[in-house]
């Protein structure tokens, strides 16, 4: 459903796929360059494959997958889209929890803490 104007928030959204690509010693430099171009990184290199991690918007992930396909994608696991509001907003529960935590800290018996 489409959000009403007052419900819309500024979000930062991305997904994190792990892509296992067929790798040979000749291809590794190409795969590393491709990963660098997309802001990704090679997180593991094995005898016959490597794993690339990318955190980006879905469209960019799709583009990476399309360009990496000729190298031979063995497996891909995508996190799905994750989003978080860019604006800090405390709920009533968080405000109460914050006040309670401050009170708890003030009442803490310091004799139970390890020596520094």
From TrEMBL:
Gene Ontology annotations of biological process type: isoleucine biosynthetic process; L-valine biosynthetic process
Keyword Transport: no
Record's signal peptide: none
Ranges of residues in domain Acetolactate synthase small subunit C-terminal: 20-86
Any one annotated GO CC term: acetolactate synthase complex
Enzyme Commission numbers on file: 2.2.1.6
Pathway membership: Amino-acid biosynthesis; L-valine biosynthesis; L-valine from pyruvate: step 1/4; Amino-acid biosynthesis; L-isoleucine biosynthesis; L-isoleucine from 2-oxobutanoate: step 1/4
A Pfam family matched in the record: ALS_ss_C
Catalytic activity: 2 pyruvate + H(+) = (2S)-2-acetolactate + CO2
Gene Ontology MF terms: acetolactate synthase activity; acetolactate synthase regulator activity
Keywords: Amino-acid biosynthesis, Branched-chain amino acid biosynthesis, Transferase
Superkingdom in the source lineage: Eukaryota
InterPro entries hit by this protein: Acetalactate_synth_ssu (IPR004789), Acetolactate_synth/TF_NikR_C (IPR027271), Acetolactate_synth_ssu_C (IPR019455), ACT-like_dom_sf (IPR045865), ALS_regulatory_subunit (IPR053050)
Protein's UniProt keywords contain Magnesium: no
Family note: Belongs to the acetolactate synthase small subunit family.
The protein's assembly and partners: Dimer of large and small chains.
Free-text function comment from the UniProt entry: Catalyzes the conversion of 2 pyruvate molecules into acetolactate in the first common step of the biosynthetic pathway of the branched-amino acids such as leucine, isoleucine, and valine.
Record-given protein name: Acetolactate synthase small subunit
The organism of origin for this protein: Coemansia brasiliensis
UniProt gene name: ILV6_1
